[in-house]
Records
---
Amino acid sequence: MKKAILIGMSGCGKTTLIQRLGNDSLRYKKTQVIEHYLNFIDTPGEYLEQRKLYRALIVTAVDADEIGLVQDCVARTTWIPPSFATTFAKPIFGIVTKADLATSPAQLEYAQSVLNSGGAQRIFTLSAVTGAGIAELLDYLEEPAPAAPPVFRTSPLRRAAANPSLALPPAASARRMAFNSPEFGELTPEDFAGADQAVRDMTLPVFAAARAKAVAP
Ligand SMILES: Nc1nc2c(ncn2[C@@H]2O[C@H](COP(=O)(O)OP(=O)(O)OP(=O)(O)O)[C@@H](O)[C@H]2O)c(=O)[nH]1
Ligand SMILES: [Mg+2]
């Protein structure tokens, strides 16, 4: 099952939804801090409402497979800015809550449009109180987690970190430490014997630039 972090304004129904999805009894509990559950991360609405707290959402979202943006269909406003999804390097889905309270289709449409403009790729409309729409969201969450975006899969630094044999070989590391000493010569391909080609391609220009700066009059 995917792990989702739920983000939405205060009172939009994040905690109640987590209780419903976990077959827990529904009881009001103001979320005061970021709370971790097995398959969910619950966040206080204030973290969306105060931009200076975005950074906490960004850091915490690293632990989730997907971001769930939540909008209450009876709220007359939103705190979800257009293109909010671009803040996160993760897939984003949307949830319209409190469908049982909607008195006109326009309320549901407004909430859906807010989530669309925020960048949600799929939108679920549901009620945690009646249970309507919950099964569809559960089916979606039970699909396997998507692979990391290509930028993370292919990054040489990421591969080097995951595999010590791809790290810089000792010869290159030692030379790097001494790059601003008079004995330092250019790094040569031999320094990288055994290193991953991508690590070499990335490292050589960086060292060359650092050396040029270090030896500049
Ligand atoms: N009728 C109805 N009420 C709901 C629904 N979901 C949540 N509520 C009510 O909305 C109120 C706020 O719900 P919460 O789940 O605490 O909202 P939250 O998003 O966790 O809010 P914060 O913790 O402040 O960020 C509670 O009184 C819930 O009972 C729903 O689907 N239908
Ligand atoms: Mg809450």
---
Amino acid sequence: MTTALITGATAGIGAAFARRLAHDGHDVVLVARSAERLREHATELHDRHGVEASVLTADLSREEGIAAVEERLGDRARPVDLLVNNAGFGLQGRYLEVPLADELTMLRVHCEAVLRLTTAAVPVMRERRRGGVVNVASVAAFVPRGTYGASKAWVVQFTQGVARDMGGTGVRLMVLCPGFVRTEFHQRAGMDTGGVPGWMWLDADRVVDAGLRDLARGKSLSLPDPRYKALMGAAKLVPRGMLSRVSSTTGRRFGPK
Ligand SMILES: NC(=O)c1ccc[n+]([C@@H]2O[C@H](COP(=O)([O-])OP(=O)(O)OC[C@H]3O[C@@H](n4cnc5c(N)ncnc54)[C@H](OP(=O)(O)O)[C@@H]3O)[C@@H](O)[C@H]2O)c1
């Protein structure tokens, strides 16, 4: 029996990770802000799969929230075998339209929390010579798209760098980079996604299945869908200035209302 801790486990990709990992027989620790939703989800996973599902209510944009999860990850009496840093959000508006405080909150949740939780989990995993960390970034990491894209680019660089440093220790790290996924993400950010073509949408359960397959294969970066693999391959051939223009135009079409 192993234990997985998933941040942002109330909805979307995080909830899909929790479902899949509980289905596979892992005990789960579910982390997010909404205590009631976490409790309902934990009860459902316990009843359906017979695993231990516990709840850790924490706001990862706050010092005490990050510290509480760090403490749980550092508990050698209850080791966590797989950490999924998934919690995240989008912001409505472009540079100078978004309050600076919201951008700083994003950096805290997407970067500081990921750095600190990874750093709390990995030493315990290294001592046990086994464990894994999946950090959820986005294909937005590969195109110039403001603080969101920049924060996800940090997640990609950080994860792949640490994955290399941890080579041979038994600890695997992988960054998962999905495209558009049907979750609460865009609605929460007040984004109008009416213009996004149907073929660009991914299903959260499939994203998780593909991601965990890639983790098992030892990849340090997972693009969990062939359509986005092709798109990202093509994007590498486009000059950066043009990519920036396309990204900005699509951002206006598919982004904030
Ligand atoms: N959906 C997409 O198209 C897409 C594409 C690429 C990457 N991603 C990334 O995938 C990850 C998951 O997004 P999603 O699409 O599943 O979004 P979602 O459906 O909105 O779920 C976001 C989860 O994060 C939690 N969360 C948000 N802020 C938090 C905070 N301050 N502290 C703790 N938990 C917090 C939310 O729970 P509470 O509100 O209960 O705290 C919720 O469980 C994010 O990192 C996102 O950037 C999403």
